[in-house]
Design brief:
By secondary structure, this protein is of the alpha+beta class. Helix 1 packs antiparallel against helix 3.
């Protein structure tokens, strides 16, 4: 009951921590989205300001052209150079060219008006050709130098012109085009920088979260180690006394009480084994490593399980690793035992061991079963000390095995086996 209650408390705390972490990540993401939206809004604003400035400069160029037409002392060519005007055309309301300077249309095309924007204040038409970096500006004026008696009603945009002439300007807008490019590059750069900062902040936060979790786990292991040292020391002495008393009772009591004594003796031995395992967990996990043959050492364990294990080591005759022989035996005895215990009730055990040479000088030993498997929920906890899903399990076997394997530079992983069951994969460095 204590194990189940403790597990429920840990699950509750983990869920709370996970929800809080998710909330923080959502807030970070919202900040990133807000900054991107701000960049987009500012970019649009800068584009609008640049477009307004271009339209105002076109208005100033038009007024300068009118003044040049009225003032004989001002040369049209000078005005064109000053305001970057490519061409000036004066057209009759019917679109016939009356006067030109520079490059203009020989006849003002009516379809041009449909693609232009109208300035409601000046009744002018304005268009930017981004392919040629040119502004086309059209405005009717009664002050044109060439008078005309014709009149026309433009059906496009429902503009009624009572002026005698139409003035067309073609203005170089390469500076405006360059400004648009700068705005777009700046916006893209800011967006990329923001994305990099967002990614960096998220990575730092997640790494920090992992680091904090690791610290909490280490602190828990330290406290657990301190408590376990005290407990193993205090428990071993009474167990030794109980063992001696059981031996005495076997000699003095009648045969009718031996079954009870055997039960007490069995449970006492189980407690002694548990304290020994805890001691192994707390001691130096590396032990005294030496060069051993993996195939040979695992084969020695088969009699303990009545040789009901399928061994596949056909890909190699022998494989040497550096490992303490007693700890090696402890690791694989525990894994094989877990494989047999995972078998469903009423089914025959199907335990297999595959030994193969992996890449980069690694040896892989897979202990496989067809048991009930491990849930995704428990997969993260099975290596925690004293966590177990078994009724009579101690929860210390996998923790000790992991410590022993890691001490040699190897790794121990539990994976789902194709077709059902679990595969415990131990990866060790091969000794040449």
């Amino acid at each position: 009951m204590m194990k189940k209650g403790g597990a429920k408390i840990l699950d509750f705390l983990e869920k709370k921590s996970s929800k809080f972490s998710l909330l923080i990540e959502i807030l970070i993401s919202l900040c990133f989205i807000s900054v991107v939206i701000l960049i987009v809004v500012l970019s649009i604003s800068f584009v609008n300001v640049a477009e307004l400035e271009l339209e105002n400069s076109s208005e100033r160029a038009f007024n300068a052209v009118l003044m040049a037409m009225r003032d004989r002392d001002v040369a049209i060519e000078d005005t064109m150079r000053e305001y970057s005007i490519n061409g000036i055309g004066v057209y009759s309301p019917s679109g016939n060219l009356l006067y030109s300077a520079g490059s203009v249309y020989p006849r003002l095309p009516v379809n041009l008006f449909s693609s232009m924007d109208r300035n409601m204040v000046t009744s002018s038409l304005f268009s930017f050709d981004d392919d040629n970096d040119v502004v086309e500006y059209i405005r009717a004026s009664s002050q044109a130098v060439i008078p005309s008696s014709e009149s026309i009603l433009l059906p496009i945009r429902n503009i009624s012109l009572s002026y005698p002439n139409i003035i067309y300007l073609s203005i170089d807008a390469s500076s405006y085009s360059s400004e648009l490019v700068r705005i777009r590059i700046s916006s893209l750069t800011l967006t990329v920088v923001t994305l990099l900062i967002y990614t960096l902040v998220l990575l730092v936060y997640r790494q920090n979260k992992k680091y904090k979790a690791m610290l909490v786990r280490q602190e828990s292991l330290v406290r657990l180690g301190q408590a376990a040292r005290t407990l193993t020391h205090e428990i071993k002495n009474p167990l030794s006394a109980i063992t001696i008393q059981i031996a005495l009772l076997k000699r003095t009591l009648g045969k009718e009480n031996l079954d009870d004594l055997y039960t007490i003796e069995h449970e006492t031995k189980r407690l002694i084994e548990l304290t020994d395992k805890v001691s192994d967990f707390l001691r130096n996990p590396r032990g005294n490593p030496k060069r051993i043959d993996v195939v040979e050492e695992i084969t020695k364990l088969f009699p303990l399980f009545k040789d009901k294990i399928n061994l596949d080591s056909s890909s190699l005759d022998c494989a040497y690793v550096s490992f303490d022989s007693d700890r090696f035996r402890s690791v694989f005895e525990n894994l094989i035992k877990n494989a047999f215990e995972a078998t469903r009730e009423g089914e025959e055990a199907d335990v297999s061991i595959l030994i193969k040479r992996a890449k980069k000088g690694k040896i892989e030993i897979l202990v496989m079963d067809r048991g009930v498997g491990i849930s995704d929920k428990d997969k993260k906890k099975v290596f925690d000390p004293f966590f177990t899903t078994k009724i009579h399990g101690s929860g210390i076997g996998l923790s000790i095995s992991t410590q022993f394997v890691k001490a040699t530079g190897g790794s121990l992983m539990l994976e789902k086996r194709n077709g059902g069951g679990t595969s415990a994969k131990v990866t060790l460095n091969e000794e040449v």
